[in-house]
Structure prediction request, 567 residues.
Amino acid sequence: MAVAGGAARWRRLSAWLPSTWLPPGWLSRGRPGLAALLGRLSDRLSRGRDRRARRSSWLLLAPLLSPPVPMITAPPCSLCPEGAHRFQWIRNLVPEFGISSSCVKVLSSPAEFYELLKVQIKMAKQRVVMASLYLGTGLLEQELVDCLEETLEKSLQAKGSSDLRVSILLDYTRGSRGRKNSRTMLIPLLQRFPEQVRVSLFHTPNLRGLLRLLIPERFNETIGLQHIKVYLFDDNVILSGANLSDLYFTNRQDRYVLLQDSPEIADFFTELVDAIGDVSLQLQQDDTVQMMEGMEHPYQGDKLVYCQRANQRVMEVINSARSRQELLHAQTFHSRQQGSSLLSQQGSQSSEGLKPEPDTWIYPLIQMKPFGIQIDEMVTETLLTEAERDARIYLTTGYFNLTQAYMDLILGTRAEYRILLASPEVNGFFGAKGVAGAIPAAYVYIEQQFYSEVCYLHQQERVRLQEYSRAGWTFHAKGLWLYLAGSDLPCLTLIGSPNFGYRSVHRDLEAQVAIVTENKALQQQLHQEQEQLYLSSGAVSSSTFEQPSRYVKLWVKLVTPLIKNFF
Prediction:
């Protein structure tokens, strides 16, 4: 019965996905181990339903906080059998940007990230676009604001009227926390450069009415946030999971990738931030906020209308960029065909004007479940599903709270997994006051439950957990690296804001990029990044949870299932 139930679920999944997402003959050829896989997935789903049925009826409140989401269908695509191009199917969902690997630089430290931000701000001539959860209020953050002011002033003095535009997107609730906050840090820029500076504050449509009145500051951030982190300066783009706060500039470990001289990618993220900004509250010089004329209000207006318009605005950006890139690909292919003919006729000098073929491809993956946009979720699940036997996936998150779907795929598929997560001491909530101080213990409990499931399925060799530990530091890195079977270097990485948890999938606005590369030097950079992070970790075993620091109080165990979808 378990296999039959799993097979039925698989048929439903394959009916939802376009048939060309699956390798030829997937369902008909009796794929080795498929029955066992379906049986394990079915058993897990049954146990999950049993566990969920025993939970408190308070869980029924959770769906009320999220709007119904329309199903997204993807255009047909194909999975190529060999090499990096096996991931070209992603371009049927999002634009594909082909670049040279020489344009990609992997950073390793918070200090390097901070210095790069300042240098890039000072060098900007046309645009500075920064999207983050919040801007901190310390001296380092003030220095960033001062850099912006100095650059804007120089731009005005040079031409009389500045061509430089600064657009900043933050979350409304997090950016408004406290008397001194992100808003008060940025108001001087708005007052001095009203024509050049725009500050947008995204407010989730799920925080409204009585809920908005009753939930206090800080706790209101659990309902939904603007969580995207992207920093671009002219044609240079930094993708990261780091916020604009002093901890992320000093001793909170994250990931950072710089894409240099990439105008198409910079244009895309500029348009994406503009689109979210258009459906966000606009900060005014007197610290009030207002919506742009003609826009639905996120918490005072009609929720369904707001979400539909936001969906349309963001999908316009994605689809128009896809169309542009497809046209560019066609033109480039035609030019190369002509260049090849000339080369054969006239010799090597004819090729000098041709742009070198890209060896690296960037795919922006967007997840905005409140707006019905689930691209990142679809791509991540497909990557986990399609990872072959003996492939290795290194997955890291600062907040280990995987969705049930991701857990099922990790435990039920064939690749080897090395999962890096934060030990309690390097969790960002360690030592926090009040209820927040118990959050690291809740993560320990979630980790222990997952490890128990790994052991129950006898998967300890295939799925291994490691805890990051570093004195005086906290851990905030997230993403994954994919190593194909037989390869010592990764050909794909995901980097950006998602944590692979319920919040990232269902509540917040998220964005990351898939970087696919054939270039060995860039693959080596990504491999070294992964090794450096995992070097500061220790293996998790049964004895890990016997340590005094891993003791979880009974009330935390009771409450965690009720609140795990909020952090």
Remarks:
- The radius of gyration is 24 Å.
